[in-house]
Amino acid sequence: MVNKAWYGCFMDTILEKYPKKTLLVEALMDLLHIEREAAYRRLRKDVTFSIHEIVKISHAWNISLDSIIGISSGQIPFLMRPINYIVPSEHELKILQHIIQSINELKDFPDTEFLDICNKLPRKLLAGFDYLNQFCLFKWNYEYGDNKEGIPFSQIIISEEKRKLTADYHKAIKNIPNTNFIFDRLLFDNLVNEILYFHSIQMITDEEKEFIKKDLSALLDYLSEVAKNGCYPETQNKVNLYVSRLNINTNYSYTYTNQINICFVHVFDKFEIYTFDIDMVSNFKTWMQLKKRSSIQISEVDKKRRIEFFTKQRQIVNLL
Predict the structure, then answer these.
(1) In which element (H, E) is residue 180 found?
(2) Residue 99: which of 26, 25, 169 has the closest Cα?
(3) In 3-state terms, what secondary structure has residue 80?
(4) CA–CA gap between residue 114 and residue 178 (Å, rounded)
(5) What is the pTM of this model?
(6) How many CA atoms does the CB half-sphere of 162 hold within 13 Å?
């Protein structure tokens, strides 16, 4: 017999995760491997979620059963979902498609805010530049792949399906109403040094280095336009760019709306640990906003500093 009080709280919680029932049904179908009608029957309470299903949902969506039942563990769970971005499985492709679909839904929530504090180029920006994106995959594979010797840049093959997903992701991210990036002041220095290192050990050819350099220059031109106008040129959605005066140790980000709360700590280049815990997301948001105190805004407000910043970054890229 299911206790109606806590089961009702559980149902309320999953509905909060996916306010749009169609998205919730899709997520349940994908996670539990059930048919659409079976998902609807559970949401109508014609059928009760099994204990196994409840545990699986709670683990995947970071729902604290302790909190629902009324037990306080004093712990905040973070999750990690490793994905092979070079040769993703069918299941991983579905996960990526679901992420893109979820991002696209954020355009319907005008209060949505995204903030990324980064010491390396974030995926949101890399996705629009093929050779930069390939370099990120190459570097990730070199550092964390199974091949002890590493695979040269030229052998990182990205399928057409994965390229389309990357393009869809790049397009979707522009639909977020409010976006903030805080860059480490040495971000481009470190990236150029990495490219030069791999070129020096012949993992990247002269021609490939030039292609990456061309992408970097194009990215700087794009960011300069974004900084000048304070928005994405494709959607006119608000973008603020900052440069931190202090070093940044890793990439952090949060997505915040009245409907969705999630924060990420980015690890191992391509992975991230994340949580939906309301208190943790609230603290995370506060801590990350404080980072602006030690940063310079280069979008819209300070033309002189903006020009100086992009001039310096172009000089660094020209070292390639």
Answers:
(1) strand 178-184
(2) 169
(3) strand
(4) 6
(5) 0.76
(6) 17
Q: Which helix (H) or strand (E) holds 275?
A: strand 271-275
C-beta separation of 146 from 207 below 8 A: no
- Placement of tokens 């995959």 in the chain: 137
Residue 86 CA to residue 264 CA, distance in Å, equals 22
68: left (phi over 0), alpha (psi -120 to 50) or beta: alpha
Start-to-end CA span in the chain (Å):
67
Cα–Cα dist 262/184, whole Å: 22
Question: Tell me, what DSSP letter sits at residue 119?
Answer: S
* Both tokens assigned to 87: 């040769």
Q: What is the pLDDT of residue 59?
A: 73
What order do you get walking across the sheet with 271-275 strand by strand? 79-80, 271-275, 261-267, 251-256, 113-118, 178-184, 238-244, 295-297
CB 224 within 8 A of CB 216: no
pLDDT one-digit tens code per residue, 275-320: 777 788 888 889 888 999 999 999 988 788 899 999 999 999 999 9
Position 62 scores a pLDDT of 65
Burial code (b: 16+ CB inside 10 Å, e: under 16) for 260-275 equals bbbbbbbeebbbbebb
* Average pLDDT value for the chain: 86
Structure tokens at 234: 């494709």
Question: What are the pLDDT digits (tens) for 56-108?
Answer: 887 777 676 655 555 445 566 677 777 888 888 888 888 888 888 888 888 88
- Output the six-digit token pair for 104: 């696209």
Run of H or E residues at 296: strand 295-297
Q: What's the average model confidence in pLDDT over 96-125?
A: 87
